[in-house]
Write a structure and sequence with these properties.
By secondary structure, the protein is an alpha/beta fold. It folds into four domains: 5-192 and 238-290, Rossmann fold (3-Layer(aba) Sandwich), CATH 3.40.50.970; 193-237, no CATH class; 308-461, Thiamin diphosphate (ThDP)-binding fold, Pyr/PP domains (Rossmann fold, 3-Layer(aba) Sandwich); 486-615, Rossmann fold, CATH 3.40.50. The chain is built from 26 helices and 17 strands. Helix 22 links the parallel strand 13 and strand 14 (523-527). It is globular and about 100 Å long. The N and C termini lie far apart (59 Å). Residues 192-196, 225-235 and 618-622 have low confidence and may be disordered.
Length: 622
């Protein structure tokens, strides 16, 4: 049997397929996803669940004229395949390759980029309003999972939505985001079946009443005039209908014909419509159906029990045994942060607030204000969504919330939307926050112990990986994991010094090996505490004696980053007078290469770039 998928190069190729061919295409799409995502890594279960929905959308609407927007974008793989990107799937989630999310730079069929949750409806509303102002007849289609509705932005956008827009909102209910959905709205969605049942109820009542002699038809007329009252009292209106948005649902999300019918109906109404569909995450692939959380994202990784977040959670559980004030907070990332294990042990002290980072931090501030000790765990890339909550609700009131920053550093596979490179920069200028960057498990343990009673906010950042034994052997040979702000690895008598922190220390060690190859030596200071910066300066000063070249290396943003701050502070006290010094950091760049490359080389942070600073008199990179 010839593969139908091989002949699909654009949405136009879908238009003349028979119903049997559509079913076969959906099977081929699932097989293609399993085969390719298993090789490259990526979001598998979510994409398996939206195959029929995506095919139906592209048969009903005219992309790219009609704008299809996916929330997060992690469920857009089928959309990518159907819009001419199938042959590029070998590069999925590779540096410079096909993005794991939607990207305006990648295709005209991606009208809005994504990577974070709960943004799609706001963007779609903006596009729909713009279409109206521009006199365009184009439709805007917004696809959101029910997990997105735990984020406040969705409800802000719904509150601002008007009836007279060509806006179609598809609510894909699969009861999952990454972890199981939590919260009142999720519970509501699992119960609401309003329009379908209400409409059936209404038809039956009308038929019965119409048969009553003399008074039947007047009663029907009266009921029609007061239908909103009847609907609100006999069969409650849905949340969306109360907002004035027409609602169609619930539709079987794996019945392509039914989906097409619902989409065409919504399209014909020429106004804002919600279509509520139900899908099964992982559909068609038994392992993913049975464990959709485990197959939400498929990575080529090492043992999940051997990484920083698993060590942190183990320590937190131990600490919670003797300190009942300790509670744990996450924003829909119980599995990703490892905090689910804490919840299994201390259910009443574990709070998953849904996809709501801003709420998570202000909620934590409230817990803290009553004397509890919240450890709030958020990926670095998501922490930036809650800047004001850190500044206004936590730091200004000097509340000792422990902000645990997971996934700190570059994220080469997920790309620009998930790089953890901004947190040090935007936290550094907020008063009264201490910032730590432990790079071994023992150091993480010691930082947790030493900050238990710190009376001000604490931020502790760590990477999404296992500790490096190379770093342990290079910097902790004396077995001392308690010295803060950092450790020093001395490489005999020399005039060169590198100051760094985090995982990029490995690149610095590689650079030292390159320098040894050309007869040069370099000492390396590995910082595990960054703020208060004055404390760090006092630690660094003795090691500057006799140095001629000093390089700050940072896997983070240059402006406002630790390297820039330390360089300026040391320069202001004359500590760098007569010293050639530079800061290697991510300079005004989202770290988003468009061609395959080594991302550290692309950013000027590779071992060779570091080595060249010390060996080339006139730095070639200037």
């Amino acid at each position: 049997m010839s593969k139908i998928l091989d002949n699909i190069h654009s949405p136009d190729d879908l238009m003349f397929l028979s119903s049997d061919e559509i079913k076969q295409l959906c099977e081929e799409l699932r097989a293609f996803l399993v085969e390719n995502v298993s090789k490259t890594g990526g979001h598998l279960a979510s994409n398996l669940g939206v195959v029929e929905m995506t095919v139906a959308m592209h048969r009903v609407f005219d992309s790219p004229n009609d704008k299809i927007i996916f929330d997060v974008g992690h469920q857009s793989y089928v959309h990518k395949i159907l819009t001419g990107r199938r042959e590029a799937f070998a590069t999925l989630r590779q540096v410079g390759g096909l993005s794991g999310f939607t990207s305006m730079r990648e295709s005209e069929h991606d009208p809005f980029g994504a990577g974070h949750s709960s943004t799609a409806l706001s963007a779609a509303l903006g596009i729909a309003e713009a279409n109206k102002l521009l006199g365009s007849d184009a439709y805007t289609i917004c696809v959101m999972g029910d997990g997105a509705y735990t984020g406040g932005m969705v409800h802000e956008a719904l509150n601002n939505t008007k009836k007279d827009l060509k806006l179609i909102i598809i609510l894909n209910e699969n009861r999952m985001s990454i972890s199981r959905n939590r919260g009142n709205f999720s519970s509501y969605l699992s119960k609401v079946r309003v329009s379908k049942k209400y409409n059936a109820f209404k038809v039956k009542v009308k038929r019965a009443l119409s048969k009553i002699p003399l008074v039947g038809k007047p009663i029907v007329s009266f009921m029609s005039a007061t239908r909103n009252f009847v609907r609100g009292t006999v069969y409650p209106m849905s949340y969306f209908e109360m907002l004035g948005i027409d609602y169609i649902g619930v539709i079987n999300g794996h019945d392509e014909a039914a989906l097409e019918k619902a989409l065409r109906l919504a399209k014909s109404l020429d106004k804002t419509v919600i279509i509520h569909i139900k899908t099964k995450k992982g559909k068609g692939y038994e392992p993913a159906e049975k464990s959709p959380d485990l197959f939400h994202s498929v990575y080529q990784t090492v043992d999940e029990s051997d990484n920083f977040h698993s060590v942190f959670v183990s320590d937190l559980i131990s600490m919670a045994k003797t300190d009942e004030r300790i509670v744990a907070v996450t924003a829909a990332m119980g599995i990703g942060t490892g905090l689910q294990a804490f919840g299994e042990k201390y259910n009443s002290r574990y709070f998953d607030v849904g996809i709501a980072e801003a709420h998570a931090l202000t909620f934590s501030a409230g817990l803290c204000a009553r004397g509890l000790r919240p450890y709030t765990v958020i990926y670095s890339t998501f922490l930036q969504r809650a800047y004001d909550n850190i500044l206004h609700d936590i730091a200004l009131q000097k509340l000792p919330v422990r902000i645990m920053i997971d996934r700190a550093g570059l994220s080469p596979h997920d790309g620009a939307t998930h790089h953890g490179i901004f947190d040090v920069s935007f936290l550094s200028h907020i008063p009264d926050i201490e910032i730590y960057a432990p790079i071994t498990y023992r150091s993480l343990h010691q930082v947790l112990e030493q900050t238990k009673e710190t009376p001000s906010p604490v931020a502790i950042r760590y990477p999404n990986q296992a500790q490096s034994e190379r770093i342990v052997s290079a910097f902790f040979t004396d077995g001392d994991f308690t010295s803060l702000p950092g450790k020093v690895s001395v490489d005999s008598e020399n005039e060169n010094l590198i100051i760094t922190y985090g995982s990029v220390a490995l690149k610095c060690l590689d650079a030292r090996n390159l320098l040894r190859g050309v007869g040069q030596r370099v000492d390396i200071i590995l910082l595990e505490q960054l703020k208060p910066y004055d404390k760090v300066i006092d630690f660094i000063l003795p090691y500057l004696r006799g140095k001629k070249k000093v390089l700050f290396v940072e896997e983070g943003i240059y402006y406002g980053g630790a390297g820039m701050i330390l360089h300026e502070k040391l320069s202001s006290v004359g500590a760098l007078d007569g010293v050639e010094s530079r800061v290697f950091a991510i300079d005004d760049n989202f770290a988003q290469p468009t061609e395959p490359c080594d991302i550290y080389d692309y950013l000027g942070l590779s071992p060779m770039h570091i080595k060249n600073f010390f060996t080339i008199e006139e730095n070639e990179n200037e």
